[in-house]
UniProtKB/TrEMBL annotation:
Keywords: Chaperone, Coiled coil. The keyword Glycosyltransferase does not apply. Residues 79-106 form a coiled coil. Pfam families: Prefoldin_2 (PF01920). Belongs to the prefoldin subunit beta family. InterPro entries: PFD_beta-like, Prefoldin. One of its GO terms (biological process) is protein folding. This is Uncharacterized protein. The keyword Coiled coil applies.
Length: 120
């Protein structure tokens, strides 16, 4: 891939590239987990809404309302944690992109090679 660049620049490029791929993968996983928790929370909320419309004398199989409230609270806690992870990974992504830009500025030959790869 990178043939004529000096070894240290090529190694730095590959390290940054690995960090970028790893961070992107983790960020996508967290975003998917956030979507799943939001769906789970919405389902619990809608179930609670339906249960609240029932009269108090209506018997249910088990304490569904309590279970749904607990699930909603657990989803809120998980979403808060996931949001923190997402923000952390987004900061890491910006750092990796900054490192990549810095490396390209320091090595015009690498910048030309990267541009040649993206154009073809």
């Amino acid at each position: 891939m990178i043939t004529f660049l000096c070894r240290s620049v090529a190694e730095a490029f590959l390290e940054i590239q690995d960090r970028l791929v790893e961070t992107t993968t983790k960020l996508k996983q967290v975003q998917m987990q956030v979507r799943n928790k939001e769906v789970e929370k919405k389902r619990a909320f809608l179930t609670l809404e339906e249960l609240n419309s029932l009269s108090e004398n209506t018997n249910t199989y088990k304490s569904v309302a309590k279970e749904q409230r607990t699930k909603t609270d657990e989803c809120d806690a998980a979403l808060a944690t996931l949001q923190g992870s997402k923000e952390y990974l987004e900061r890491q992504m910006k750092e990796v992109e900054s490192s990549f830009r810095e490396l390209l500025q320091q090595s015009p030959a690498l910048a030309r090679q990267v541009m040649a790869m993206s154009v073809s």
